[in-house]
Design a protein that fits this description.
about 475 residues; alpha/beta; Rossmann fold; 7-stranded parallel sheet
Length: about 475
């Protein structure tokens, strides 16, 4: 099947073709006909990266009255990045219909957003719950004319503490509206909201098929935590085409890691919750245009980065929740491309890896970092490749290969040396510092086996907290 079989408005089909979309994803194939033909509340359960935005955007655009000057649809998203991404996608899909869309979220100018609402007369509002509530209480937003409310990544809005805000916003809309919700998981509070807010909803679930993506190769390295930064650099050194995201657990960890990698000569962009919108937009632009090939971020960005050609996702330590792991690795292996998901863990996290494998029904391969000898060889070969154009020019031009007058001064220092002696000097000058550093550090070792066994077998003290994971948390919390 292709999009032309979905009975869409020709102007929408034109935009779809211009975007290069030919064959709908599974969720698009199932959801679009349903939402176009039935006036119903709807629940879609599918993981990030399955094409949900297009799945709800196309039927929504079919229902918009472009002659109206009132807000007809509200889309709620958990993060600024995702809200902006959804807006951009709708603008692209609806450009031939002249659909007006306004994105509202924290960290951006109130005045600009208020002006856009009052003077732009948007058909669709895309926003984060906090800013929507704020402008609702100020009287800037009025939702009496809203006919469709879409909750995107509902479980993440729950995790970020927005569920009460979502219920408040739903209460400010017409009782005749339709609610479309998309969520990767269905925790109890989400089910309770469905029972209280939805009217006989239709449901499509692709969860079992998308929790584990066959296009993602999952692996982990067991390395002492203090050596995780060095381990990352060794992965980069052995992966010349690396283009990926490193997920950290905290903003502080994100900043510290980015600073260290920058000092080591890697081009890094950072994304976390304390950045202004301008800083976020700049970082994303640098990353999407590949001016930077590494993004270091917290989970706040996991739902808002939409880049289809990422080669790697790296977990800088296990996240606390299984859902976070699934959403993180879902950033790679998209649009039919292969991807790699790597997790750096300390030996105390091996049990958590085993539980993760069992819960997801996958095998996560344990791998060893490249040896010091392999790393040295790679560095030498890469530098020789960088010199390739000079070697080629020298061979092609031979006697016509030009240097300036300072070459004679340079040459006098080498004329008395043999060819091998000159090469040794060149090699040492080029590589000695980095190769010596690798030799001094040596192999990165995991914690001793006896330490790991003692960690997991240590008895629980009477006054301490239970070590059993709670809810869907699979990572043991540290005692200290």
């Amino acid at each position: 099947m292709n999009f032309t079989k979905l009975s869409l408005n020709p102007l929408l089909l034109k935009a779809v073709a211009e975007l290069g979309y030919i064959t709908p994803t599974e969720i698009q194939e199932k959801v679009i006909p349903l939402l176009m033909t039935e006036e119903c509340d709807f629940i879609g359960q599918a993981q990030t990266g399955t094409g949900k935005t297009v799945a709800f955007a196309l039927p929504l655009l079919e229902k918009i009255d472009i002659k109206s000057r009132h807000i007809q649809a509200l889309i709620l998203a958990p993060t600024r990045e995702l809200a902006n991404q959804v807006k951009e996608e709708i603008v692209k899909l609806g450009k031939h219909l002249r659909i007006r869309v306004e994105a509202i979220f924290g960290g951006a100018s109130y005045d600009k957003q208020i002006y856009g609402i009052r003077h732009g007369h948007p058909h669709i509002i895309v926003g984060t719950p906090g800013r929507v509530i704020d402008l609702l209480e100020r009287g800037v937003l009025k939702f009496e004319t809203v006919e469709h409310v879409i909750l995107d990544e509902a479980d993440e809005m729950l995790n970020m503490g927005f569920l009460d805000d979502v219920n408040t916003i739903l209460g400010a809309t017409s009782s005749e509206k339709r609610i479309w919700m998309f969520s990767a998981t269905m925790p109890r509070p989400i089910v309770n909201m469905i029972n209280s807010q939805f009217k006989n909803p239709k449901m499509i679930s692709l969860q079992k098929k998308t929790v584990s993506n066959a296009d993602i190769e999952q692996s982990y390295y067991v390395i002492r935590e203090r050596n995780h930064k060095e381990a990352l650099c060794r992965i980069f050194d052995m992966t010349p085409d690396f283009y990926g995201i490193i997920f950290c657990r905290t903003r502080m960890e994100t900043r510290e890691l980015a600073n260290e990698l920058n000092l080591r000569g890697h081009k890094i962009e950072v994304l976390h919750g304390e950045m202004s919108q301008k800083e976020r937009d700049f970082a994303m632009a640098q990353f999407k245009t590949k001016k930077t090939n590494i993004m270091v971020c917290t989970d706040v960005a996991a739902r808002g980065i939409d880049v289809n050609n990422l080669t790697h996702v790296i977990n800088y330590g296990l996240p606390q929740e299984i859902d976070s792991y699934v959403h993180r690795i879902g950033r790679t292996g998209r649009a039919g491309m292969k991807g790699m998901a790597i997790t750096l863990v300390d030996s105390r996290d091996i049990y958590s890896i085993r539980r993760l494998e069992k819960m997801l029904g996958v095998t996560i391969a344990r791998k060893d970092l490249p040896s010091v000898a392999d790393l040295k060889a790679m560095k030498v070969l890469r530098e020789i490749e960088n010199m390739g154009p000079i070697f080629t020019a020298l061979q092609d031009k031979k006697g016509d290969f030009k240097t300036d007058e300072t070459f004679d001064l340079f040459k006098t220092y080498f004329e008395h040396l043999s060819k091998e002696e000159a090469l040794k000097i060149l090699f040492t000058w080029t590589f000695n510092k980095e190769l010596k550093r690798l030799t001094d550090i040596g192999p990165l070792q995991e914690a001793r086996v006896e330490e790991r066994h003692r960690h997991f077998s240590r008895p629980q003290s009477g006054g301490g907290r239970s070590r059993r994971p709670q809810g869907n948390s699979y990572r043991h919390r540290r005692r200290h």
